[in-house]
Specification:
The complex is a heterodimer. Chain A is 51% helix and 6% strand. Chain A has helices at 3-12, 16-24, 36-41, 53-63, 67-72, 82-93, 101-105, 112-126, 131-143, 151-165, 184-188, 192-204, 220-224, 227-244, 255-269, 280-289, 320-328, 358-375, 385-397, 407-413, and strands at residues 178-180, 208-210, 248-251, 276-279, 303-306, 379-382, 404-406. Chain A has a 4-stranded parallel β-sheet. A 3-stranded parallel β-sheet of chain A has the order 5-6-7, with helices on both faces. In chain A, helix 1 (3-12) packs antiparallel against helix 8, helix 10 (151-165) crosses helix 12 (192-204) and helix 12 packs across helix 20. The mean pLDDT of chain A is 96. Chain B is mainly alpha-helical. The longest helix of chain B has 24 residues, at 110-133. The mean pLDDT of chain B is 93. The chains are: A mainly alpha, B mainly alpha. Chains A and B meet through helix 2, helix 7 and helix 15 of A and helix 2, helix 4, helix 7 and helix 10 of B.
Chain lengths: 419, 214
């Protein structure tokens, strides 16, 4: 591991889009206002554009057009050092959730979150990565899950859910149409979602299964910026899906899992899949539109929806959760700046797995709190287990009284089971 | 050869050549880096996303307050004022007719020029004050940002001083700054006037495939 490797990775990550971003940024600093880390600390180092500085320096020194002339007369930035990488480690890992909100305010439309991801890959090459993420990656490789959810643990959780709801949970069934994968946080903390899925799919007549070969949706490689690990973890799901010959893999209520599997996965694997990726929200919306699920009654509490950044702003699933919310709620209110402008929970992009970032993450939640305070909901609904866990912790820390619900579970709760 | 003849003759030719070749090289330099083909299955059109991205970022969205409003107002004042002066100032219309395009168009009346110049100067000064007073912009800014701002300011200022055209030397000083600006531009962040289209386009295309343009 060395700084030279980091520089090589950063150089190779500068393609035409990255070059255009680095050339177009006029240092106006408007992105600061979109960043919950800057907004709640006032620390100018947390300005999103500043987080691109490692890439900027490598670009200006090595790859920018006319950089040769500038280098000859000493007008390029200094070469990166290990100290620089260490200085940027907390900016890239602790104070950026890759939420991408900065892009919507940028007059140049720069995808700063994408640049942070590329910068993280440089730090991975140099071994400058938060210890917690390295440990989580090791567990994911060794045990199949960053939270040590082994196939045995998964079977036990599924068996318990079967017992509770009285509906069989199919495991390793070849020829099923849909493969359900789950995030570690769902299995560990929000396991009722498995029963909810079973109930919904039974009514809709969906043929589905869970695989013990590829069940973990969490992709720590995507979060830390390690393409090899990301490829291995996506490969497990692809392998399981192909082994069971499913037509679809359902990306669960997990933000970055959707991005990892649907948008980045084929590029990591270097090939298109033999099956399709569909998000759970897309499928529920589709089943409802086809009349395959029928609901009875509605939740009359004042509910609002927290948009998981990677599913909505960076994933494109924007209207589906809203249609589902209106199906199950008679008092659904939107927060200001909902949808693609929504404010992150504070724990995406690996920040929630990084214990040293906890204090900062809780400070950043103040922006979300402001959004919530304005609408005063009785309960908050979301569609990402990581968001849900982070929100619950922060709500508790801020001494707010507000349950956080999963949207799939909410849909299951209002199923007309007489049908 | 007089100073005016130098700055409007050989130096102008040199400056405009450096500008055109340098800017073209910068653009080619970005495009030649290419992008890996994205083989994920798109939900919508990348091209439409790229087009939408061009327009979407003319106005920031997402409910932002003071910082954004300040930049939005000052930024538009400066840029619209600058383009107004560049294209519709009477001496520019004449100069462009004689040296570049070969035809002329309706120029701003004197009062229109003064008003446009005041708007442009106000915008530029407001942006520069922000650059030297806002902690975020101080942290981000480098020498290039300041040189670009000052060079543009001096080019505009000498242009206003030369408006009367009562002294060749004032016109010559303005042309000297125009030449310096043209030579500096391809090597600097002033190229954002072109690269913004690439930046917005790439982001728009990337997310357009996903069915959303943030």
């Amino acid at each position: 591991m060395s700084v030279d490797k980091a520089i090589e990775v950063l150089k190779s990550n500068i393609d035409a889009s990255a070059a255009s971003y680095l050339d177009a940024c006029v240092h106006c600093g408007q992105c600061a206002q979109a960043c919950h880390f800057y907004e709640n600390t006032g620390d100018v180092r947390y300005t999103p554009a500043y987080k691109m500085d490692l890439m900027r320096r490598v670009y200006k020194r090595h790859k920018a057009p006319l950089s040769g002339i500038k280098r000859a007369i000493g007008l390029v930035p200094d070469e990166l050092t290990m100290d620089d990488l260490k200085e940027w480690e907390d900016l890239l890992y602790d104070s950026c959730t890759l939420c991408g909100r900065c892009t919507i305010v940028c007059p140049m439309g720069i995808d700063i979150a994408g640049m942070v991801r590329k910068s993280r890959e440089g730090l991975v090459a140099a071994g400058v990565v938060p210890e917690d993420l390295i440990s989580a990656a090791k567990r994911a490789i060794e045990f199949g899950s960053p939270l040590k959810i082994t196939p045995d643990v998964l079977r036990k959780v599924c068996a318990k859910q079967e017992e509770e709801i009285g509906i069989p949970i199919p495991i390793d069934q070849e020829g099923a149409d849909y493969l359900v994968i789950l995030s570690a946080m769902e299995v560990l903390q929000f396991y009722e979602v498995i029963g909810a899925i079973a109930k919904i799919f039974r009514q809709a007549g969906v043929s589905w299964t869970i695989s013990t070969d590829g069940y973990e949706a969490t992709n720590i490689g995507i979060q830390m910026g390690d393409k090899d690990i990301a490829r291995t973890l996506v490969g497990r799901i692809v392998g399981a899906a192909e082994k069971l010959k499913v037509k679809y893999v359902i990306s669960p209520e997990c933000g970055h899992a959707y991005s990892a599997l649907k948008w980045e996965g084929p590029n990591l694997m270097g090939r298109a899949y033999d099956f399709e990726i569909i998000h759970m929200l897309e499928l529920l919306d589709q089943l409802q539109a086809e009349g395959r699920i029928k609901l009875k009654g509605k939740d009359d509490r004042r509910l609002t929806f927290h948009d998981p950044c990677q599913i909505v702003r960076r994933g494109g699933v924007v209207e589906e959760p809203r249609r589902l919310m209106n199906m199950v709620s008679s008092n659904f209110v939107e927060m200001d700046n909902h949808g693609t402008a929504n404010i992150c929970c504070g724990g995406g992009g690996g920040v929630s797995s990084n214990s040293r970032a906890e204090t900062l993450r809780l400070k950043a939640f103040a922006s979300k709190k402001k959004q919530l305070d304005a609408v005063q909901p009785d309960a908050l609904v979301t569609a990402c287990a990581n968001c849900r866990n982070v929100l619950e912790e922060a709500i508790d820390d801020y001494e707010m009284d507000m349950p956080v619900l999963g949207l799939t579970e909410l849909v299951a709760e209002y199923l007309d089971e007489t049908r | 050869m007089t100073f005016l003849e130098i700055v409007e003759g050989p130096l102008w030719t040199l400056a405009s050549s450096v500008f055109l070749i340098g800017a073209a090289w910068r653009i080619f330099g970005i495009i030649r880096l290419g992008r890996k083909k994205d083989i994920s299955i798109p939900r919508a059109s990348a091209l439409l996303g790229a087009i939408k991205g061009q327009f979407l970022h003319f106005v920031p969205h997402g409910g932002f307050s003071f910082r954004t409003r300040y930049h939005l107002i000052a930024g538009y004042m400066f840029h619209l004022g600058l383009f107004g002066l560049l294209i519709y100032a009477a001496p520019h219309v004449l100069f462009l007719k004689e040296n570049v395009v070969g035809f002329e168009w309706v120029a701003l009346p004197r009062w229109g020029f003064i008003l446009t110049a005041e708007i442009a100067f106000t915008g530029l000064i407001l942006l520069w004050i922000r650059r030297i007073s806002d902690p975020v912009m101080i942290q981000l800014s480098d020498a290039d940002d300041h040189i670009g701002s000052w060079l543009t300011f001096l080019t505009m200022l000498t242009g206003c001083m030369a408006l009367q055209e009562s002294h060749d030397s004032l016109r010559a000083v303005h042309m000297l700054f125009v030449d310096i600006w043209l030579i500096y531009m391809p090597f600097s962040r002033l190229m954002h006037s072109v690269t913004f289209m690439f930046s917005r386009g790439y982001t728009g295309a990337f997310f357009g495939r996903r069915g959303v343009v943030p």
